[in-house]
């Protein structure tokens, strides 16, 4: 199994892209197992809620970005939607368990025509992208006017006591469990990658600037995860 070498400092730009690709190639074989253990299977419910939050009709085409092993693709299919998975990591795609069509590609340069999909999802990958504004702009390009997006990501609980406990768990327990079951360096890097996320208000403003309306952020499970939803603005609709 390939091993991930964690950079000495959090990488940026193309260095970050290469590091993220190598990390997910390394952890792909046991990615689902570690996720279920680390979240006590709460991640399953979070993904189901993400798909429901789209509110799209059956048969709608949804691109799942950073699709990994296909968890969200399977939920989308179960909800009667037509997913297309895209991931930077070939290792993750090779370990995927879904019948949806899968593409290896960069979420900042998607191989889809303008306004060609009805919706988009992304699970736990915002902090792994090279930059968020170009990603939001690319979402706005490929999602049709009136289409929906649902972005699932980790979060920091607002309650001080929960925040302290979650910090210990995410910063100490997760790397230990991940290191025992998978790649130690990768699971030391993942908690640190939360530093890439902007403040919630800034992230929502970036989505609005990119061309989305009805932008909402919901905290899940006492604030350890967050779900951001939005609608692609139609022409002539006020921002």
What report would you give on this structure?
The chain has 239 residues and is an alpha/beta fold. It has one domain (13-232): 3-Layer(aba) Sandwich (Rossmann fold), CATH 3.40.50. Helix content is 43%, strand content 21%. The chain has helices at residues 13-27, 31-39, 42-54, 71-78, 90-94, 132-142, 160-181, 184-192, 200-210, and strands at residues 61-65, 82-87, 102-104, 117-123, 143-154, 212-220, 225-232. A seven-stranded mixed beta sheet has the order 3-2-1-4-5-7-6, with helices on both faces. Strand 6 (212-220) and strand 7 (225-232) form a beta hairpin. Helix 3 packs across helix 4, helix 6 (132-142) packs parallel to helix 9 and helix 7 (160-181) runs antiparallel to helix 8 (184-192). The longest helix has 22 residues, at 160-181. It starts with 12 loop residues before the first helix and ends in a 7-residue tail after the last strand. The mean pLDDT is 93.
Tags for this model:
239 residues; Rossmann fold; seven-stranded mixed β-sheet; 9 helices; 21% strand; globular
């Amino acid at each position: 199994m390939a091993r991930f070498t964690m950079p000495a400092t959090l990488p940026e730009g193309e260095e970050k892209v290469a590091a993220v690709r190598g990390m997910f190639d390394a952890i792909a074989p046991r990615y689902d197992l570690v996720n279920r253990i680390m979240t006590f299977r709460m991640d399953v419910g979070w993904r189901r809620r993400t798909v429901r939050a789209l509110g799209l009709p059956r048969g709608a085409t949804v691109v799942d970005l950073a699709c990994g092993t296909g968890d969200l693709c399977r939920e989308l299919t179960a909800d009667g939607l037509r997913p297309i998975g895209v991931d930077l990591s070939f290792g993750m795609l090779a370990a995927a368990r879904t019948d949806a069509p899968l593409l290896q590609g960069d979420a900042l340069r998607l191989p889809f025509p303008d306004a060609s999909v009805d919706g988009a999802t992304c699970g736990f990958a915002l902090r792994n992208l090279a930059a968020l504004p170009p990603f939001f702009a690319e979402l706005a390009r490929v999602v049709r006017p009136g289409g929906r997006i649902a972005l699932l990501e980790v979060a920091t609980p607002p309650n001080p006591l929960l925040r302290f406990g979650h910090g210990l768990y995410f910063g100490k327990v997760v790397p230990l469990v991940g290191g025992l079951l998978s790649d130690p360096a990768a699971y030391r890097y993942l908690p640190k990658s939360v530093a890439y996320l902007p403040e919630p208000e800034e992230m929502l403003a970036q989505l609005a600037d990119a061309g989305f309306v009805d932008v909402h952020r919901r905290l899940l499970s006492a604030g350890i995860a967050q779900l951001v939803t939005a609608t692609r603005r139609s022409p002539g609709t006020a921002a």
